[in-house]
Every structure is written in C-alpha cells, then in structure tokens.
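Hi all, posting the design record for the shared folder.

TITLE: backbone redesign
STEP: 1 of 1
STRUCTURE INPUT:
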C-alpha cells in the first residue's frame, strides 16, 4: 500500500503545472508583439499541461521603465481575451527586475515591487560580471521580507558552482531556464544548467518564453533526461 501511494505521489510530482517566468505582455518589453501572439503562446502552455502562467515583463531603468500599474493593467487586458476565448489557464503578472541602483533603492526605500507567490522577487543581473551591489541587495531584500529568486543563473558568464552555492547560502533561490537544457543558449550554458540540477540547487523552472521559438524549445525539453531529473527536485513551481 505504501509503495502504491509513493508511486502515485511520484507521478503527480513529475508534471510542471505553473510557469513563473515569461514575457507575454505586448508593448512592455522584448517579448510578444501583440495580445494575439500571447494568446497563441498561452495555448501552447496549456497544451503542455500548464494550468497557470505568471508572466514577468522586464523592469530595467535604462530600457524598460515599466511600473506595476502598467503591468497589471496589460495583464487584465490579456486575461479578458483568454476568458473570451475560453482558454482555461490562470494568468498572473509579476516582473523580472534587472539589478541596478534603481532596484536597490526601491528595496531600501520600501517602494512597491511586483512579486509572485509568497513574496518571491524575480531578478536578473548583467551577463558578464557579478554586480558589486549583489550581496548588499540580497541582504536588504531578505531583510524587507522578500524571497529573492535569481533568474537563469546558468546564463551568466561570471557564474560558477562556488558562486551559486554562496548565493543559496545567502538565501537566494535559483530559477533555471528550461530552454537551457536543450542547448538553446549554447553548450556552456547547457552544461552549467545540468551541473546545477545535479547539485540539487534548482528551486524553480521557468520558460523565459518571449516568442514561439522559445516555447518550442520548452516543448522539446520536456523529453530531455536532465529536465526529467530536474522534476525530481523539490521544485516550488506547483506550489505557486
Ligand atoms: Fe526573462
């Protein structure tokens, strides 16, 4: 009997029901160009078994100065379209914050930030070198009650397994991009992604979907052995 329940539980765990990183709100960033395109991508998520999509437009002081109100109102527009077309998926919105002085001061000044789940704060950094404000930002964000989630750690040139471990020790959760597992961003990034999975240091999986090409990379990753290994980790996705 015990083995029956264990088996049932294992099979339930092996589905990804919630995506928490994508760019599906038109006009806000480098993601979809129209609500119609977003609807197509969301239909694709639904066909893959997802029941909820938390979309996360970029917020970056130089390029994408999106305010929470703009993001939420675009998400409401898209939600109306999904309802009209009877697409049974829950759409929520948060943001992917680029770590810069602007974000750091929003945290210390306790300005409203868009989070998902129980105060998870998705952030990214520049791709080349570790930001000098990274550790201070993490400390301040946690002190303010946020749970910082680093988007796609495998994609940063400065990332090493040692740094990833240190970030986790400081309380940062790590979100891997599913397309990384099928070489979408190149071999070194795929290797880093696999190392993070093998170390058990992946807390969340995200599509980071901006367009159909990336959605198709997610779809092909569903057959990938390392993706299946990642599903054995205690991921937070389905709790969102
Ligand atoms: Fe992203």
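Okay, here is what came back for every position:
SEQUENCE:
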């Amino acid at each position: 009997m015990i083995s029956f329940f264990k088996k049932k539980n294992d099979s339930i765990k092996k589905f990804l029901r919630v995506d928490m990183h994508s760019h599906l709100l038109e006009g806000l960033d480098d993601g979809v160009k129209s609500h119609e395109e977003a609807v197509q991508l969301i239909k694709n998520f639904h066909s893959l078994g997802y029941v909820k999509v938390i979309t996360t437009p970029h917020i970056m002081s130089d390029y994408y100065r999106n305010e929470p109100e703009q993001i939420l109102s675009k998400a409401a527009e898209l939600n109306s379209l999904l309802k009209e077309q009877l697409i049974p998926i829950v759409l929520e919105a948060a943001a992917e914050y680029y770590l810069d002085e602007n974000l750091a001061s929003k945290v210390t000044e306790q300005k409203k930030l868009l989070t998902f789940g129980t105060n998870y704060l998705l952030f990214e950094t520049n791709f080349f070198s570790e930001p000098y404000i990274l550790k201070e930002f993490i400390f301040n964000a946690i002190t303010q009650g946020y749970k910082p989630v680093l988007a796609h750690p495998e994609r940063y040139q400065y990332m090493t397994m040692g740094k990833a471990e240190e970030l986790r020790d400081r309380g940062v959760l790590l979100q891997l991009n599913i397309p990384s597992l099928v070489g979408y961003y190149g071999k070194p990034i795929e290797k880093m992604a696999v190392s993070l999975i093998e170390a058990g240091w992946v807390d969340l999986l995200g599509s980071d979907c901006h367009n159909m090409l990336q959605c198709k990379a997610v779809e092909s990753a569903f057959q990938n052995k390392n993706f299946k290994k990642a599903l054995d980790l205690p991921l937070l996705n389905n709790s969102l």
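COMMENT: The chain has one domain: 14-239.
Let me know if anyone wants the other runs.
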